[in-house]
User: What shape does this take?
Amino acid sequence: MNVKFEKVDAVNGLITVEMEKADYAANVEKALKEIRKKAQLPGFRPGQVPMSLLKKRFGGEVTAEQVNKLLGDKLYGYIREEKLNILGEALPSEKQGNVDLEGDAPLVFVFDIALAPEFDAKISDKDTVDYYNITVTDEMVDQQVKTYQGRAGRQEKVQEYQSRDMVKGILGQLDENGSILEGGLQVEGAVMLPDYFKNEDEKKKFESAKVNDVLTLNLHKAYDGSEVELSSLLKIEKEQAKEMTGDFSFQIEEISRYVPAELGQELYDMTFGEGKIKSEEEFRAAIKEGLEAEYKNDSDYKFGLDLRTYLEGRIGEVVYPDAMLHRVMKLNNPDKEISEEEYKASIKELTWHLIKEQLSDQFGLKVEQADVLETAKMVARMQFAQYGMQNVPEDALENYAQSMLKDKNQAEGLVARTVERKIVAKAKETVKMTEKTVSMEEFNKMFQ
Assistant: This one.
């Protein structure tokens, strides 16, 4: 068997595989003998079917199967051995001639391959990239304190209504004279948040209202005729809700107010774990430290984006085997027409993928399962933090992270994120970083 590589140009190549009959004949014979052991044909006992008959019935199919298997092994074995950096798959070439499996002449197979473009993406201290440190202000800490107080707050019963309070009571449908409509709707335990009324006049009726007060409301105006909200509140069908344009009486039975948690040991324990924080000063310091760690991740993310932009600019325009890549994309998406915009976007991502491969080689990066798990736990920790859960036990983080890794799509994303996280860490040690201090507002504007 003979395998030959021809470089057509910088990004296109041909691989020719020439196969003699002797290369696959033994495999064909072995496969036919396996078939003979199980073959059941009329007039012959199992295992006794003549080989001549088996070759006549199955020879072509078995030969094609064994040739194809041997061809794949040799083709991709050669690509690995020669360390050819190809994009996508090898595809049958237009130069491919007819192949006669029944004759004695050598079989010749010709494949087109797309070669990865060559460029230098390695970095050193001669490369300069900006790094933005986000300032954590007292106002940001104050806001986070209020957030934690709000999340740990509770509902309290009060006697007089204030904005944002929740009211509960009895709704009764009124007639045109303002009296209770005989046979009209009555809803007990009706709950409303007047602040969410669409009509300001209806909202104002609750100002200084007290428990046991009776108000006259036009719910149709209050909810701007929303059939969904009216049907939900009045416990009726949407069609019936359309007709509820008159007034209702509302007797207030209960007013509830959400009261934020007070600063104290209970809040400190709930937020950071029992006994870890013992004073307001320590609480604020821990919050500031958490924000700084969170914003450091944001800064690293921005640094990664800027590193990518810098390297893409330094490398310049990259030439790709467009015709070959279009064939590969069409093969992978047979039912979809790939637009030029989609092609350009995929090429941009391909370039970044090749850059990351070079950087990974430069730094000798290896991604272990433990690294991916750590990334998953980092993501889980951030998700829990969004809900104010700072003291999530390690075993809970571990279980949540493991569940993420069981999802194939999530796992692939976490592997890619782990690679980029490791590249960013090494790049920060390698390039010359121009550090700049910015406010959160200034930092956010960079993404607009």
Notes: Residues 280-315 form the longest helix (36 residues). The chain has a mean pLDDT of 91. Residues 21 and 75 are 17 Å apart (CA to CA). Residues 154-259 form one domain.
